[in-house]
Specification:
Order of helices and strands: HHEEEEEHHHHHH
Radius of gyration: 17 Å
Shape: globular
Bound molecules: zinc ion
Structural class: mainly alpha
Strand content: 5-15%
Number of strands: 5
Length: 190
């Protein structure tokens, strides 16, 4: 399960398009002071098992022409300041559910993520993430309660990721996209 995503080299391209959309919306909304937003991206060096298309080395961001305040739109590509692409953080953490030494070795081999990092992500999902205002404002929207102790496996299931469809993955990452804005995890679901 999910391993088929590894072979899908078009995934980053898909998420890049989602980010471009989110950035377009943020730019159209403009600054609170009504000033125009100018492009002011952050350079990033993301890690993932795919060869990345151009554009994945930038976190899209804007600054206001008048008050200079920054506007950083939500992102489906990046999860906060994590070095690995959001898709890797979500999938590898979900794959880890019920870890065995063999499974951890496979995760390292196929996805290039060390066991220690996977363990740290697990703690992040089940502690910081589930306690965040973002998750607390979003969890009531699911038809069936999402098991917080089985995060993010339970969340992936809620989005129908068992079928390993890129659309389901995109929907999950789009759902998570406010997490990448500042302040960290404080974003509410709108
Ligand atoms: Zn402004």
């Amino acid at each position: 399960m999910y391993q088929s995503f590894l072979k899908d080299a078009s995934l980053p391209e898909l998420l890049l398009r989602v980010d471009a959309d989110l950035a377009r919306m943020a730019k159209a909304a403009g600054c609170r002071c009504r000033g125009a937003l100018h492009v002011s991206n952050y350079p990033r060096k993301p890690r993932c098992p795919w060869t990345l298309p151009d554009g994945c080395d930038l976190r899209l961001s804007f600054s206001c022409a008048i008050c200079r305040k920054r506007t950083t739109p939500p992102s489906a590509l990046f999860l906060g300041r994590k070095v690995y692409l959001a898709v890797v953080v979500a999938l590898v953490s979900a794959l880890r559910h019920g870890p065995t030494p063999r499974r951890m070795a496979l995760l390292k081999e196929q996805w290039g993520v060390p066991a220690r990092t996977v363990a740290r992500w697990g703690e992040w999902w089940r502690a910081a993430f589930v306690r965040s205002p973002f998750w607390r404002s979003a969890r009531g929207r699911f038809a069936r309660p999402v098991d917080e102790q089985a995060m993010p496996f339970s969340l992936a299931e809620a989005f129908g990721l068992n079928a390993a469809k890129p659309e389901a993955l995109c929907a999950l990452l789009r759902f998570l996209s406010p997490v990448s804005t500042r302040p960290w995890l404080l974003a509410q679901v709108s």
